[in-house]
Amino acid sequence: TAFAQALGVIVLPIITRLYSPEEFALFAVYTSIVGILSVAVCLRFEIAIPLPEKDEDALSLFILAILSNIVITVSLTVIIFFFREPILSAIQQPQLKPFMWLIPIGVFLAGLYGSLQYWATRKKQFSAIAQTRMTQAVSSSAVQIGAGYLSFGVIGLLFGQIINFSAGIVRLFISFSKETKHLINQISITKLKENWKKYDKFPKYSTFESLANIMAIQLPVIIIAAVSIGPEAGYLMLAMKVLAIPIGLIGGAVSQVYL
């Protein structure tokens, strides 16, 4: 985890010379939008996965998280398709138009990784989680630096972020499938309904709590990008990224063990 956090800072001086401040501002808006939406895309069922005593109940919660992820991502795609112009007008980011389709992709992959990570947390696979974090850091940095040298523009930053959301999914999914293949026959619609009712406080309360928390952090970036012409949003995102390192290193890693 420390390596992943450190690498993100080490490559900043390189990346900031490969991309313009304006490209970073657009990247900051994309990252903030995806960051806000991804915390609620699974209706917080994913954070309940470590709680049940029985693995079949935990698997039911995982399935509920993935179903919620799919439904919300599809709904988000439809909203973007029909209301793309009003959304771009509201956030004052017309240059984001060609890349709007990357928002649902980033949200879905972030939700999928989060669900798999909480299953791995349930199984105390902390080293596997840390290794996927390292894979994310190395892969996303390599994509962003490579695309920058090839002058791909902001698309390099965006694809690097998507890699950051998704790298490690395959490894976690392989482990998850091995551990649950004997349980899949025990899952039914009735079982899903039972666990929905038992853990319905997560979508009812935790969804809005998590949205409030993340919006307090990410909304200023979107607002500053909307009201300023220059690269201020990009500078703010870079500062927040550096300041968040101690929280990500200590808070994120320790919270998994407490869970």
What does this structure look like?
With 259 residues, the protein is mainly α. It has 12 helices and no strands. The protein has helices spanning 2-10, 12-18, 21-38, 55-91, 102-122, 126-149, 154-166, 169-180, 189-198, 201-227, 232-243, 245-258.
List the topology elements:
Layout: H1 2-10, H2 12-18, H3 21-38, H4 55-91, H5 102-122, H6 126-149, H7 154-166, H8 169-180, H9 189-198, H10 201-227, H11 232-243, H12 245-258
How far the N terminus sits from the C terminus, by CA atoms, comes to: 17 Å
Tell me what portion of residues adopts beta-strand conformation: under 5%
Number of strands: 0
Shape type? globular
Rg:
19 Å
Mean pLDDT, nearest integer?
Answer: 90
Instruction: Give helix % range.
Output: over 70%
Q: Tell me about the biggest sheet?
A: none
Parts with pLDDT < 50 across at least 5 consecutive residues? none
How many alpha or pi helices?
Answer: 12
Name the descriptors.
259 residues, mainly alpha, 12 helices, globular
What's the short version?
The chain is mostly helical and 259 residues long. The protein is built from twelve helices and no strands.
